[in-house]
Amino acid sequence: MPVISYELPDRFVAGAVGRPGERAFFLQARSGPRVTSVGLEKFQVTLLAERLEELLDEVLRRSGGDAAVPAVAPSELRDDEPLDQPVEEEFKVGTMALAWDPEDERVIIEAQEVTEDAEDAEVGEDDPAIVVLRVRITAAQARAFAERALKVVAAGRPPCPLCGLPLDAAGHICPRQNGHLG
Fold first, then answer.
1. 3-class SS at 9?
2. I want to staple 69 with a disulfide (CB 3.0 to 4.6 A). Which of 10, 60, 117, 124 is the partner?
3. What distance in Å separates the CA atoms of residue 82 and residue 17, rounded to the nearest whole number?
4. Rounded to two decimals, what is the model's pTM?
5. Is the dihedral of CA 165, 157, 86, 110 positive or negative?
């Protein structure tokens, strides 16, 4: 299984390209001139950010506050810049995994390529054709990543105040106003 690995990259962010309602989401890692972008779904960005926050909070709780885990993202690590251009998708993400390395006090994020026969494959099964992006970052970088990722997701179409579905510039049929989905 080929692994694209980044150990403490210069930059690791989630971002989106396109107009709200038509955006494509990406994870992007950069070390020097080397840039890797992988595509994923909006809900995957949200889940990754939420799980990162949960992981860091749990590490902090279990250490009694002794771990090098900031409670919030350090301001110097905040990154509001657009994705590095051109955005060239290496692969589409299927599954993701998170881990904490207590020896190095690093967060490990793995994004595995989606495969057509993903239902048939067993978790952890080695397939030489599946590509994996593996990124190791500090807890502070992980906090900054999660903060940005949640902002990227929230920057899309605003939700309907009644039903919570995204409002579209072309109109919105609200199920709570006797509209229908579909």
1. coil
2. 60
3. 9
4. 0.82
5. negative
